[in-house]
Amino acid sequence: MTFKGELQYRAKAVSGVITQVFWGLMYIYLYTAFMGGKIIEGFSISQMISYVWIGQAFFVLRFADLPKNCAKEIENGNVCYKFVRPVNLYNQWFAEHFGYKLSSTIIRCIPLSIVAFLLPKGIRLTLATSFTSFALFVIALLLGALITSAISMISVFLTFKTLSAKGTLSIVNTVCGVLGGMYVPLIFMPQGVQNVLNYLPFRFIMDLPARIYIGNIPPLEALKFIAIAVAWLVALIIIGKILINKASKNTVIQGG
After folding, report:
1. Cα(211)–Cα(164) distance, rounded to whole angstroms?
2. What is the dihedral of CA 72, 78, 80, 86, to 10 degrees?
3. What b/e readout covers 96-105, taking b as 16+ CB neighbours within 10 angstroms?
4. pLDDT digit string, tens, across residues 81-124
5. Residue 93: inside a domain, yes or no?
6. Which residues, including other chains, have CB under 8 Å from residue 241's CB and lie 6 or more apart?
7. Tell me, what's the pLDDT at 53?
8. Separation between Cα atoms, residue 42 and residue 141, nearest integer Å
9. In this predicted model, what pLDDT tens digit does every residue of 43-70 receive, in sequence order?
10. Is the CB of residue 52 less than 8 Å from the CB of residue 216?
11. 254 in any annotated domain
12. Which of 98, 153, 136 is nearest to 227 (CA)?
């Protein structure tokens, strides 16, 4: 239902595409100047350009947020009505969030990808290096979206504790952005830092899928990281279920 509802917001999608094209071009020129025409650890200018466009096309998947109306219900106490319904609260919120992310991504990524493919040579998006890389890219991208939803469920628990969705999401998204290479690609960071961040869950949201697509990570290595991403997804879901269950049993509403 959330998926179908979000598909109706066409104006939102158009404005999002325009915004992401602008930011994509800005990042391309910024990183081009930074790289100075050099290849950094097998990361070429053309790969960087496609890396940026992939990140912009799937921009919605990069950030954690709460399911629709979830923050308002927690803050005003109406979440109590969900506690008495015969449904698993975590599963419902997770499905709502994933449906929102999926629909928002679809209505943005297709037109933005078309625009990026039609841009002049030197700033355009290029095709994946191989069909295998593209297939692994799709799998990694789906896992990244699920990991984003799992992290968002932990944000729901933090909102129960702080009653401030805005503050919670600001902290969570800053952590995800810095440690996941969303602000500065991990490939530009010192090797020692990369060795740590490559195995944290945040880089699996967007850095891994994009680097698989451009061929910076070969298929066999990609399979290893995809397996790690699956392990992180399972762990985050288990942690999220425990935390949400704990919050639902210890929530105080209107002093009651």
Report:
1. 35
2. -90
3. bbbbbbbbbb
4. 777 777 788 898 899 889 888 888 888 888 899 999 999 988 99
5. yes
6. 90
7. 93
8. 22
9. 888 899 999 999 999 988 888 888 877 8
10. no
11. no
12. 136
How far is 140 from 109, CA to CA, in rounded Å? 16
Q: Dig out the tokens for 89 from the structure.
A: 């609260």
**Domain of residue 206, residue span:** 2-249
Q: How far is CA 41 from the centre of its chain?
A: 24
User: In this model, does residue 205 exceed pLDDT 70?
Assistant: yes
**CA R_g for the chain:** 19
| Cut 0.85: pTM above it | yes
Beta bridge partners of 43: 40
Q: Is residue 177 part of a domain?
A: yes
The residue type found at 96 is: E
Tell me the three state secondary structure of residue 40: strand
pLDDT band at 256 (very low <50, low <70, confident <90, very high): very low
Tell me which amino acid residue 80 is.
C
Q: Residue 151 corresponds to which tokens in the numbers above?
A: 């992290």
Is 1's pLDDT higher than 80? Answer: no
Packing angle of the helix pair 219-249, 89-118 (nearest 10 deg): 140
Residue 243 lies in a domain: yes
Rounded distance between C-alpha atoms, residue 57 and residue 163, angstroms: 32
Number of domains in the chain: 1
What is the arithmetic mean of pLDDT over 157-178? Answer: 87
